Amino acid sequence: MMNKVYILSRSCQQCLVRGRLERQRASLSTCKLSSCDDLIRRYDDNENSVTTLTLNNPTKYNVLSSAVLDAMQVQLDDIAADDSISVLVIAATGKAFSAGHDLKEIHSHKSEEETTALFKKCSKLMMSVNKLPQPVIASVQGIATAAGCQLVASCDLAVAANQATFGVSGINVGLFCSTPAVALSRNIHAKQAMHMLMTGDLISSQQALAYGLINKTVSMEMLETETKMLAKKVASKSSYSVRLGKEVFYKQLQCDTLSDAYEVATERIALNCQHDDAKRLIAKFVNK
């Protein structure tokens, strides 16, 4: 099956929101785009069941503006409903993975309600990444700050170039990164998170690896290759088991007691044992 590349513009978003998605894929490939309108590129590697969404606004450091959040949300909703996709990669073009929210956009808001709506939209996106049935891998080539760092922390796995840096630096402009703190504090130790949040200091990819924010650091030249290798490896596993595993992993973490966590995990692993993939692969192993 042929791989496809899509680029989402603001005009394309209007088509998507109206209800043409799959439904829309033919129209997406024919959209006329200008360089200032490109928001997100989508690439479907159908052979390996891996989809990549690439933030594509490098001149503005891939800020997560309201328009970008809308475009990404539409894509996440589509990917979540597509059983043919096993893994999602989130990448970016340019020097920055993402500088977070567009401060000019926030500064233009005339009311608290406008700002609240923006942050709710962003929070919904981050939760959609977390709740997506497919595992999500961040491929970080440059700086990831504030909501950009939040996006990395919201992904299930992350590979970063050696020169990538990470921060929650809103405090430097008088804004404590409250929403990024939610994802960050669920990835790294509280004192490390608080240090980043209170100082606004950037950390290197090596520090991010030591903190547990990312899984691996590689050279910039190897970033795409290493990310693809990881995505293909995960995609080669039982899609049913991987999806079930992601769900149970986060669900048991939310349990109040160890007993509750084991109850959830026991129910899911027993269910997993009855699936055809598990039966087939276990039989293959024991009959060697």
Describe this structure in words.
A 7-stranded mixed β-sheet has the order 1-2-3-4-6-8-11, sandwiched between helices. Mean pLDDT is 89; it is low at 10-37. 35% of the residues are buried. It is an alpha/beta fold and 288 residues long. It is 51% helix and 17% strand. Helix 11 (239-253) packs antiparallel against helix 12.
* Overall morphology: globular
Strand ordering within the main sheet: 1-2-3-4-6-8-11
The overall strand count is: 11
Structural class: alpha/beta
Instruction: Count helical runs.
Output: 13
Low-confidence spans: 10-37
The level of helicity is: 40-55%
Order of helices and strands: EHHEEHEEHHEEHEEHHEHEHHHH
Rounded to an integer, what's the Rg over CA atoms? Answer: 20 Å
Distance between the termini: 33 Å
Proportion of residues in extended strands: 15-25%
